[in-house]
Amino acid sequence: MLELRTRTRTSLPDRVSTDVFNRVMVTNALSPMHVIEGLQGLVAADGLIGVMSSGQGSLGNNIRGGNDVYRASKAALNQLMRCHAARHADDARAFVLMAPGWIRTALGGSNAPFSVEEAVPKVVEVLLAQRGRPGLQFLDREGQPVPW
């Protein structure tokens, strides 16, 4: 899997096989939506559905390119969540796309400025603060809106 992550993060779409592209899209966009659609009935009527996106899924913030396939998969996830939120416009639940920032993980690498232990409490705090706020938001770990 690390090989897949490394290849997709640094590769241009014309250098990524269709199989790898499809696996990244299924992992980052389609599978989270299957989980949401399948389990949303377990979320309280005034609860929250949070989805791990990425600032790299922002079209507005993409001024340098790079990580093309990963970016495309997170942008696809964001669009799918927009569609979901539009279909559930009368839902009292909050929907949040979370951009946690650059985190030291297998994907983020050892140069990332934040550890998982530093990032997760902020992510949880932001998510919990959105309960009772219906609609879809795209937020970073500081609770700031991320451009679509």
Description:
- The chain is an alpha/beta fold and 148 residues long.
- It has one domain (2-140): Rossmann fold, CATH 3.40.50.
- Helix content is 44%, strand content 11%.
- The protein has helices at residues 2-10, 18-39, 68-87, 116-129, and strands at residues 48-52, 94-99, 135-140.
- The protein has a three-stranded parallel sheet with strand order 1-2-3, sandwiched between helices.
- Strand 1 (48-52), helix 3 and strand 2 form a beta-alpha-beta unit.
- Helix 2 packs parallel to helix 3.
- It is globular, with a radius of gyration of 15 Å.
- The relative contact order is 0.17.
- The model has no long low-confidence stretch (mean pLDDT 90).
Keywords:
single chain, 148 residues, alpha/beta, Rossmann fold, three-stranded parallel sheet, 4 helices
The total tally of domains equals: 1
The total strand number stands at: 3
Shape: globular
Q: Termini separation (Å)?
A: 28 Å
Q: Strands of the largest sheet, in order across it?
A: 1-2-3
Largest sheet: 3 strands, parallel
Please tell me how large the radius of gyration is: 15 Å
User: What is the number of helices?
Assistant: 4
Which second-level CATH architecture applies?
3-Layer(aba) Sandwich
By CATH, the superfamily comes out as NAD(P)-binding Rossmann-like Domain
Give the oligomeric state of the chains in this entry, treating copies of one chain as homo and distinct chains as hetero: single chain
- Output the structural class: alpha/beta
Strand content: 5-15%
Question: What's the pLDDT, averaged over the residues?
Answer: 90
